[in-house]
Design brief:
This protein has 15 helices and 22 strands. With 541 residues, the protein is of the alpha+beta class. Bound molecules: guanosine-5'-triphosphate and magnesium ion. Pathway: Protein modification; protein ubiquitination.
């Protein structure tokens, strides 16, 4: 690569050759030669040019490459180098541009020293030489007169005819039907030999045509190389930008942005959590203050009642005369103590469970419980009672013996700001005609299917369709729970059941749980309250 050349085509810049003039891409500050800029601009938008090194766009004033600023500093430097006015400090002599850069690329050995690369051709000695060997071998008066040219200008040697060795090849046969393998011919071949009477052209013309073609190819391939090299460079930049372990680049920047985003989210969450906890604690403090005031008031009443009782007890053992004397005082004392206001707290004041909900913007709301009715349906033995026991947090150390529910059971549980009454309805066939009395005014229906009993899937689906298809269900959210999921491993039957449920023309929310292990139960209660809050048009918790 030439140090003072264009980094795209790697050819030297020049003030004299317009196509080699260094032009500045003002968008980014890189410099490339006018020729490369022209071919790059043709592949992009004509009004602008993308830098081949960093893909930054530069507007082309007037849509013409020639309007891009010349890199005068570089031109001046080149001029000073060619003047010899710049000293190469490492060599302590004027800085030189390698004028044989092209010849060196041919990498032909020097005839004098195989370790040297030839750059010069002596037309008299017919030898390829490096600069120093050319200097040494041609230092005498006579030899110094030999004509030496750059290796790339070496004249091509004469070629002699293979059949008539003393004749030079001068023509090339152009006869379409010529069957000779050797198309080059000398005068003898043409006039008397196997090419006699054949159409032909001068070898120089043929060579010129061929060279012209090769030059065209070189031109096309050169452009292609530039495009490919530019793309390789762009790809390298992109690879570097996205490779992990780099200190800078797009990946690093984006990673920082993502981290900042999550840092902000965490900070917001922490702030909202603190605000919610503060609010909860303030609420608890106010409740404690009010309960303490109530308690102190009742203690004062209790003390007064105690002392009055003692006074009355003492009066009971007084002499008749004295007792009668104190009659009015004692009655007044008893009446005033009896009239002392003693506000006895009711259950709601004593209830310490705190109803709360959290809005979408993560604010805590403390308020009354919302009462909702959740009805459990499903075939007998599907696990309804077991799931309700799990929701009630009743310890279940082992699987209980089947104990069919006759009629129904109601259990109350609290979750956030919901007070849910869980209606566990028996699933025996004789009880199923009663189900409608339970689901007709439910806020949520849970239909449980025993995942293990695939022989009962169709019966279960039939009852489900009948239930959900009943207009009494209306907009009530329906959950279909596959119980015993931790039992038999998932099998094809279960997959088929899930797709059959999904294909039903109702809006059903499917979940899987296991009453024996308790898995999936905690998520269930959360989903139920979210569905109920949506149904009520409240802010989902
Ligand atoms: N291994 C296992 N057994 C379960 C599971 N759920 C329920 N069972 C057992 O299955 C049997 C029936 O469960 P129940 O909860 O009584 O069924 P049910 O749906 O209430 O039945 P009915 O009241 O007749 O409608 C009991 O012996 C439970 O212990 C489970 O997830 N895994
Ligand atoms: Mg039951």
């Amino acid at each position: 690569m030439n140090e003072y050349g264009c980094n795209v085509c790697e050819e030297e810049y020049s003030a004299n050759d317009e196509t080699k003039c260094p032009r500045v891409l003002t968008g980014c500050g890189h410099t490339i030669c006018q020729g490369c800029a022209t071919s790059i601009a043709q592949t992009g938008r004509p009004s602008s040019i993308f830098c081949p090194f960093d893909r930054i766009s530069t507007v082309l004033p007037g849509g013409d490459i020639r309007n891009l600023k010349k890199n005068f500093a570089l031109l001046e430097l080149l001029e000073r180098i060619s003047d010899g006015s710049i000293i190469d400090r490492s060599q302590n002599e004027p800085f030189q541009i390698d004028k044989y850069a092209k010849e060196r690329q041919l990498n032909i050995e020097c005839d004098e020293d195989q370790c040297h690369v030839a750059v010069i051709y002596c037309t008299v000695c017919d030898s390829n030489l490096c600069e120093s060997c050319a200097e040494i071998t041609h230092s005498t008066n006579v030899l110094s007169k030999h004509k030496r040219v750059p290796l790339t200008d070496k004249p091509t040697p004469l070629v002699y005819c293979k059949l008539h060795a003393s004749y030079c090849v001068e023509f090339v046969c152009k006869e379409e039907y010529c069957d000779s393998e050797n198309r080059m011919m000398c005068l003898m071949c043409r006039d008397y030999g196997r090419h006699k009477g054949h159409r032909h052209i001068m070898i120089e013309n043929e060579l010129e045509e061929l060279k012209e073609k090769l030059r065209e190819f070189l031109n096309v391939l050169g452009k292609q190389t530039r495009i490919v090299d530019t793309s390789v460079r762009s790809l390298e930049i992109a690879i570097q930008d996205l490779s992990p372990g780099q200190e800078e680049g797009q990946l690093v920047e984006t990673r920082q942005e993502v981290r900042a985003h999550f840092r902000q989210l965490r900070a917001n969450l922490d702030r909202d959590e603190s605000a919610a906890i503060d609010k909860l604690e303030t609420y608890a403090r106010e409740r404690v203050e009010s309960l303490t005031t109530n308690r102190d008031r009742l203690m004062a009443v209790s003390t007064k009642i105690g002392s009055t009782c003692i006074e009355l007890q003492k009066a009971l053992i007084l002499e008749k005369g004295k007792l009668l004397e104190q009659k009015d005082d004692l009655i007044a004392l008893a009446e005033s103590t009896n009239a002392e206001p003693a506000s006895i707290p009711d259950d709601s004041q004593l209830c310490t469970r705190i109803a709360f909900s959290i809005s979408n913007d993560r604010r805590l709301h403390i308020g009354d419980f919302i009462d909702s009715r959740v009805v459990f349906l499903g075939l007998d033995g599907s696990g309804k009672t077991s799931i309700v026991r799990r929701l009630k947090k009743i310890p279940m150390e082992s699987v209980l013996a089947p104990h069919p529910t006759i009629g129904f059971n109601v259990e109350l549980i609290h979750y956030k700001n919901y007070r849910l009454s869980l209606w566990d309805v028996g699933g025996l066939p004789k009880l199923r005609h009663l189900w409608k009395h339970y689901y007709s005014n439910a806020q949520c229906i849970l239909y449980i299917i025993d995942g293990d009993s695939y022989e009962r899937y169709s019966e279960s689906l039939r009852e489900l369709t009948k239930t959900v298809g009943d207009p009494l269900v209306g907009t009530c959210p329906v959950f279909v729970g596959i119980n015993r999921k931790d039992g038999t491993p998932l099998n094809g039957h279960l997959d088929a059941l899930l797709s059959q449920i999904s294909a039903l023309p109702f809006q059903l929310q499917i979940f899987q749980c296991d009453a024996a292990s308790g898995s999936g139960i905690d998520q269930l209660i959360d989903q139920i309250t979210v569905s109920i809050s949506r149904l009520n048009g409240e802010i989902p918790v």
